[in-house]
Design brief:
Layout: H1 2-11, H2 18-50, H3 53-64, H4 66-77, H5 82-99, H6 103-121, H7 128-168, H8 170-186, H9 191-198, H10 202-222, H11 224-238, H12 244-249, H13 255-271, H14 291-306, H15 314-341
Helix pairs in contact: 2-3, 2-4, 2-14, 4-5, 4-6, 5-6, 5-7, 6-7, 6-9, 7-8, 7-10, 8-9, 8-10, 8-13, 10-11, 10-13, 10-15, 13-15
């Protein structure tokens, strides 16, 4: 029986593993978020600031499709067949709406299950065009109605606790949040999806931005000798995840960016009071496409419009630029000096293929 079930799962390409669900699906979900909510937020901000209403409208449409985009992205990562993939549009929309503030986490959990159930029945009957969408949609929406509100509430509560703790202990939590989210950004998982799932904003969101920037800008500058300007662009505006292969070979290269994050996090929370009051997903993006910085700016604009912030000050800009670019670019190479002198980090250790 066990052998038969294993054969069935293999035939259906259902791989139950931490990598498939915790890395592949989570990473794809972040791309779905980027292609909907994040792009929508950027377009909305640009349209509002430039007075271009069509951009505001398009941004609103894009943001409203975030649940569907995340679910389809997850299905794609799980290599779902077309009928399952298309049916996940409904599943993602339902899970995101019912999950409330923790919608992204609900989408991740429910879309994985609905996708795998859809794959299990796909092409098993002569009326596949009916059976597969029915199983995928009914299982997904049914599960969403049962557990999405609870998942959303739990994720929102965890995020609220993190944000409360950061407000209460900005120095200590500034270090913890900055380091952990920065590490998540470089690992083959998604810091953006994690921040979105937890609804991480406020001071905690600012610390998360600091940690991500420390990894991206830090690695870009620290490896300039090996990777030149191409490395500055690919890591500083792309992703520090490109260094993951080199980190496996020599974990010491990861220590300087982590130490940099441990410094910039509390500087962000305690000195500049940097807050991410834009989209939570922006908290986990760092300098990737400058999304983190655009998110902070969008939060400023929203706060001014709401009357909770008098205006955008020069200190706001100085803090954002220092935390995002200047401090990581200075601190990370400095932290690397003793490791280079000790021979723990050598030329070529951070060379990108």
């Amino acid at each position: 029986m066990k052998k038969n079930s294993q054969g069935f799962l293999a035939r259906k390409n259902i791989v139950i593993s931490a990598r498939r669900y915790g890395i592949d699906a989570l990473g794809a979900m972040a791309q779905g978020l980027f292609a909907s909510l994040l792009i929508g937020t950027i377009l909305n901000t640009l349209g509002t600031q430039l007075g271009i209403q069509p951009l505001v409208d398009v941004g609103g449409f894009a943001s409203s499709m975030s649940g569907a985009a995340m679910a389809v992205a997850i299905g794609y990562a799980l290599q779902a067949p077309p009928l399952v993939l298309f049916s996940l549009v409904t599943v993602g929309t339902a899970a995101n709406q019912m999950g409330g503030a923790g919608g992204p986490l609900a989408v991740l959990f429910i879309a994985i299950i609905a996708s795998e159930l859809g794959k299990a029945v796909s092409k098993e009957t002569r009326i596949d065009i009916l059976v597969t969408p029915l199983v995928t949609i009914l299982s997904g929406v049914g599960l969403a109605s049962l557990v999405a509100p609870a998942i959303g509430k739990a994720a929102s509560s965890v995020g609220a606790i993190i944000m409360w703790a950061t407000d209460l202990q900005p120095f200590l939590m500034g270090i913890i949040v900055s380091v952990i989210v920065g590490i998540a950004l470089t690992l083959p998982i998604s810091s953006a999806a994690i921040c979105a799932a937890l609804g991480l904003t406020g001071l905690a969101g600012g610390a998360a931005v600091a940690g991500c920037c420390a990894q991206m800008v830090g690695f870009a500058v620290m490896s300039f000798k090996e990777n030149k300007w191409g490395g500055i662009v690919s890591q500083g505006i792309g992703t520090s995840m490109l260094q993951m292969g080199n980190i496996v070979k020599n974990p010491f290269i990861w220590i300087p960016p982590i130490l940099s994050a441990a410094v910039t996090g509390p500087v962000a929370t305690c000195l500049f009071h940097l807050q991410m009051n834009g989209s939570p997903v922006s908290s986990g993006m760092g300098t990737c496409g400058l999304v983190g910085q655009i998110g902070v700016y969008a939060g400023w604009v929203a706060d001014v419009a709401a009357g909770t912030k008098a205006g955008i000050t020069a200190m706001d800009w100085i803090g954002l630029i220092l935390i995002s670019f200047i401090l990581p670019a200075i601190l990370t190479p400095l932290f690397a000096v003793p490791f280079r002198k000790a021979g723990l980090i050598k030329d070529g250790d951070m060379k990108l293929d």
